[in-house]
Amino acid sequence: MSGTGRTGSGHGRVGSVLSGLAVAVGCVLFLGGFVWGALLYQPYTVPTDSMSPTVEPGDRVLAQRIDGSEVRRGDIVVFTDRVWADAPMVKRVVGIGGDKVACCDTDGRMTVNGQAVEEPYLRGEEPASPMGFTVSVPEGKLFLLGDERRTSVDSRSHLQEAGQGTVPRGAVSARLDAVAWPLGGFLERPRSFAALPGGISEPGPIRPVLASVALGAVLILGGAAYGPLAKLAGRRKQPAARSRATADV
Fold first, then answer.
1. How many angstroms separate the CA atoms of 116 and 104, rounded?
2. Does residue 118 contact residue 194 with C-beta atoms inside 8 Å?
3. pTM for this structure?
4. Where does 6-133 have alpha helices with state H?
5. Which one is catalytic: 19, 50, 129, 212?
6. Has 50 been annotated as catalytic?
7. DSSP letter at 139?
């Protein structure tokens, strides 16, 4: 009878509507997440080991497109500067305009404006830099170091040039938020810079972007699977129903 609330394909009308709705919402979330991510983030392949062990050469990272004015100490940024071979590079910002950055104190730590900075992202118990330096960062400029302090070619390599190895804020195009491949997770902001004026930057929206894509995929797969699963369940019920009918006769 039509009042049973079942479709000709053998599964409930309500189930069909809900599965279709799940697929539709899933498509919106999945595609919307991809578009959102494409607008805000750019993929980048790390070319060298200068940021090891935080990111390794060949890692595929997601970098949020930002303006140089948004950069804070501790950020890992992608920048391009003519003096630095005029090619995209990845380094960590350790000093901004007005800072006095020096290394090293008696415990082997870098100091910013006289305040020692703990750097848990460095490898082992080595000092913050094998070479000493003292730099006054000009306004509108950034002082950048790699996390692999023994071999990184960074601001220390340009200390004798104008600006003492600093680069303009405008040279920055993006800030790293996550390692996409191999799966390395999110890159947290180092809390050691938080006490300095200006604090640290807030993470970009990478988590909600990925959550939107993942939830969308789940809804699409779940909604699409409902019909075949309902049919399969219906086929399994039919022999059982026939057996009961035979037993009743």
1. 9
2. no
3. 0.82
4. 13-40
5. 50
6. yes
7. T
